[in-house]
Amino acid sequence: MSHHIVEFKNVSFRYPDGTDALRDISFRITHGESVGIIGANGAGKSTLLLHMNGYLMPTSGTVNIGDLYLTRQTRQEIRRKVGVVFQNPDDQLFMPTVYEDVAFGPLNLGMDEKSVRERVEYALNLVSSLELQNKPPHHLSCGQKSSVAIAAVMAVEPDILAMDEPAANLDPRSRRLLINLLKTFEHSKIIASHDLDLIMDVCQRCIVIREGTVVADGPVMEILTNKQILEENHLELPLSLQRN
C-alpha cells in the first residue's frame, strides 16, 4: 500500500540557531513495518519525527509520505495520514476538556457529531481513559496526559503512527497497555524511545541515529544485542537482556 510508505531522501535540517540536527538522512519504511528509532539525547530523533507530518520542513532533501512529497501545500493532507504523538503531551493538549481534545481531529475531518462521539469513545477506550473525558487536561497526571494524547491521535485513525517517547510518563500497567495497543496497530509505526525493551517488544526493525545521521539500520534483535553499536551511541542492552 503505497500510501503507508515513509521515505526520507538525503534529508538535512538546520535550526535557526545554526544547529545541524539532521545530516543527509535516507531510509524507506514500507506498509506495516514497525520501526524503532534509537540514539542518545540530542541525536536528532525528535527532529526526525517532526518531519514526518510537516511540523518541521527539511532544509534540503525530500520527505515522501505515500504518494505525496512533503511541501507547505501538501502538509495538511499528510497530517491526515500521519499521526504524531509528541514527547511532551502538554504540547498536544490545549482544549478545555479531554473530550474536546480527542474530538478536535475528527471534527477537523468534517465528521458529524454522532461519528465524532463514537471516535472519541473508541479512542479513549483504547487507552482505558474514557472516565477522563469530562476532565480538564491540565488536571491530569503525566501518565493520564500521555494516554489522552495517544487517544487524540488514534481518533483520526492515521495510516502511519509516529511516537516520541510514548512510555516516558507511564506507570508499568499503562506501559503494558500501550505495548499491547501498539501490537494491534496494523499499519506502519515509527517509535523513537530510550525504552529499548519497548522497542524490542513492538518493533521488527531498528534505526540508530547519531549526530543527525543514520549509523545502523537492521533487524531489531540484531541491533539491540550488539553491545558495540549500543555503547558507541551511549545506550545499553535492553534490561531484559542484561545479566546481573
Molecular structure report:
- The mean pLDDT is 91.
- The protein has nine helices and ten strands.
- β9 and β10 (213-219) form a beta hairpin.
- The strands form two sheets. Strands 6-7-8-3-9-10 form a six-stranded mixed sheet.
- It has a single domain, classed as Rossmann fold.
- Helices cover 34% and strands 24% of the residues.
- α3 (98-108) packs parallel to α5 and α4 (113-126) packs across α5 (142-154).
- By secondary structure, the protein is an alpha/beta fold.
Keyword list:
alpha/beta; 4-stranded antiparallel sheet
Structural class determined from secondary elements: alpha/beta
% residues in beta strands: 15-25%
**Shape, principal axes of CA atoms:** globular
CATH architecture: 3-Layer(aba) Sandwich
Q: Mind telling me the CATH class?
A: Alpha Beta
Q: Into which percent range does the helicity of residues fall?
A: 25-40%
| Poorly predicted runs | none
Number of domains: 1
Kindly, what is the distance between the CA atoms of the first and last residues, rounded to a whole number of angstroms? 45 Å
Write down how many β-strands occur, each being a DSSP E stretch of 2 or more residues: 10
Topology:
Elements lengths: L5 E9 L5 E10 L4 E5 L6 H6 L9 E6 L2 E2 L5 H7 E4 L12 H11 L4 H14 L15 H13 L5 E5 L7 H13 L3 E5 L3 H7 L2 E6 L2 E7 H5 L2 H6 L12
Parallel strand pairs: 3-8, 3-9, 6-7, 7-8
Antiparallel strand pairs: 1-2, 1-4, 4-5, 9-10
Brief digest:
The protein has helices at 45-50, 75-81, 98-108, 113-126, 142-154, 172-184, 196-202, 220-224, 227-232; strands spanning 6-14, 20-29, 34-38, 60-65, 68-69, 82-85, 160-164, 188-192, 205-210, 213-219. With 244 residues, the chain is an alpha/beta fold.
